[in-house]
Amino acid sequence: MAIPRVFVRNLSFQTKDLGKEVTLLLTFDSDVKGIYETCFPAVCWLTTFGHTGSYRMHATYTSQLAFSRPQVADGNTVDAETCVGINNSEKTTLTRNNCVVQFSKPVKGVSGYLEARNDTGFVQDIALGFMSPKGSRDLMPRPILYFKEVDDASSIKVQFTPILRAYITSDYRHTKILQSAIDTPPIWEQNLAALSESTTWTLKRDPCTGHYYIT
User: Fold this and answer.
1) Are the C-beta atoms of residues 69 and 63 closer than 8 Å to each other?
2) Distances (CA, A) of 110 to 78, 86, 116, 150, 156
3) Ranges of residues in the chain whose predicted pLDDT is under 50
4) Distance between CA 15 and CA 136 in Å, rounded?
5) CA-to-CA distance for 162 and 129, rounded, in angstroms?
6) Would you give the DSSP letter of residue 211?
7) According to the model, what pLDDT value does residue 110 have?
8) Which of 89, 121, 158, 163 could staple 30 via S-S, CB 3.0–4.6 A?
9) Helix %, strand %, coil % for the chain, to 5?
10) Which has the closest alpha carbon to 50: 26, 16, 25, 74?
């Protein structure tokens, strides 16, 4: 099986003299099957820009995806116990042996899907995320989608496109699992696979309408 080339996307979001303090939230909450029913998006990046002065936030994404067994506290993903890198059209199995839980080496699966099977004998939480760039000291993925209480002897299958959305909101915190759709519309949306490796985006506010937009 050919190994797909991993790409990296470095995004910078900047603003100057915005006129109002706001919080910018970035998440992958596009049209995934079962969204807010069987899977729940995580807040990937979150920052607050002041009403005056210059501000910038950096976000780095890699296309190397991974399944993990997340640790969740108070609706937030706090860490991952174990993980395995996964590519499109591959599947892996989560097992438990002598109290050690681990994912198997991925094998060929259903074309166009990422699949994880729970064979631990117990209900398990599973997350899909992306790995840090090569050279990073972080060995665990940043969560994208959270699958709560996956039954034993059952599988999750995901068709994932890296469509990142930006929202202006103050109701969330970093690594929070979104239990329902954000109640404000996104102000920006991009398929990261279609972008250049490094891009810079500017957040602006229309003083007449109070609406925000990113260019």
Assistant:
1) no
2) 31, 13, 11, 19, 12
3) none
4) 27
5) 11
6) -
7) 96
8) 163
9) 0, 55, 45
10) 16
